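Risk register update: the risk of archive-format incompatibility is retired. Evidence:
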Amino acid sequence: MRPLLEYLPALLSGILLAVSFPPFGHPAFGWIALTPLLAVLAREQPAVGSSRAFGLGLVAGLVYFGGTVYWTGATVRTFGGLSLPVSILVAALLIAYLALFPALFALTLRWFIRRLGRRALWLAPAVWVASEVGRTYFWSGFPWLLLGYSQTTVLPVAQTASLVGVFGLSGLVALVATGLAALALASGAGRPTRQVWAGAWAPIVAVVALSVWGSWRIDAAEWTTSGRPLAVALVQGNVPQDEKWDPRRAGDILDRYLEMTRAAAAGGAHLVIWPESSTPFYFENDPVEGERIRALVRQRGVRLLLGSDQIEAGRAPRYYNAAFMLEPDGSTAAVYRKMHLVPFGEYVPLESLLFFVGPLVDRVGAFTPGETMVPLPVDGATISTAICYEIVYPGLARRAVREGSTLLTTITNDAWYGDSAAPHQHFLQASMRAIEQGRYLARAANTGISGLVDPYGRVVARSELFETTIVTGVVRLLSDLTVYGRIGDLFAYVCVALTLSACVAAWRRRT
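Archived output:
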């Protein structure tokens, strides 16, 4: 019984991490989420061994991701045709894989503490950020709900992302938790020293200072009055996923989008955006229905960004998840092909090993990733789009901005997720890109949440889930770069370098 009780701090950390995110949680939990886990890793009596440290991190990770990406099981069952046991297994495999990163974090930090002393506890923020970098880029990556995202809606704090990105926010949140853990350990051993109190208060003072600066930045709001204005309309068709490819519903679906686009154009929109895979046919391969869309664009004189699958003919045809930009004359100005595909949604990783997901393979098919960031022209300027899951990759948005994008857009079909936490989490992460890059963000989602976010993370307009609606507003085409836009994930790479340097120092240090 006693060994099981020793895992309670890790369990608590996992719960606090999970409830740091919407729609069920609160950002305040993020600041203390890692504290219980850090305190148990840094204790001296009884000492925590390597296997126990790994187990503690694994428990925290299983609860963290089990409580946030639980919806993957229902998604692959409902739309992938898997049986209940197999869908649970697929979700469990993803959660277990993600939990390996907190487990490696705990193992690494405990090793540092054993070799370098308890002061190595202060390496925790760097090691945590390094683990998040690994989760972002290892094996195609799955950077869903990094710790820094917990503060997206706390706008004064979130402005820090314009300097150091979401990884920097993760480091800041982890630093506060580290200071609290150090204070808890010192209090348990007696009266904390001045150094301990200073270590606990310094991160809090830094948060307060950054919040004051962030509030000033938001109040100044210089990017809401600069740049060229553009009237945008987001069409939320609200088409249930199980009706999406029903041939009997195709005509009604297209009619709905065309009618809503007419209304958007009548309301003064110059750019209309449809969601990912909005057409119930291959846009380029259906001349009749495709011409209906082009004709409407010509009649109304608007630009239209729409999502539709694309086929590249050949002996072995290639399929792409794509976005088409139509000019007011109905011609195709540019086509962007999605570069980061969704595992178990657009391709099946390790397909030969995961033989039990046969029905999912049949339904998902094999999409090919795009290779380039394609600029989308709008009245002499260029904008960019990210399709669905791509918006959670900070580097992609930064790359688009560095290549001249004056407006970030993202198109998605969150109908896959049903009435779960996923659409709320997805919108939260998309909003962070606006703050990082100092750009307006326009997000069109089939079943919601669609919305416009300003360069400071403020939601200008948004829809609710499962409503058929048009979200309209005026954005600005901006060209200035934030500090983060200039330096990128330098902070994150410094954390990786610091972690590797500590590994070398710990290796050389005798126990």
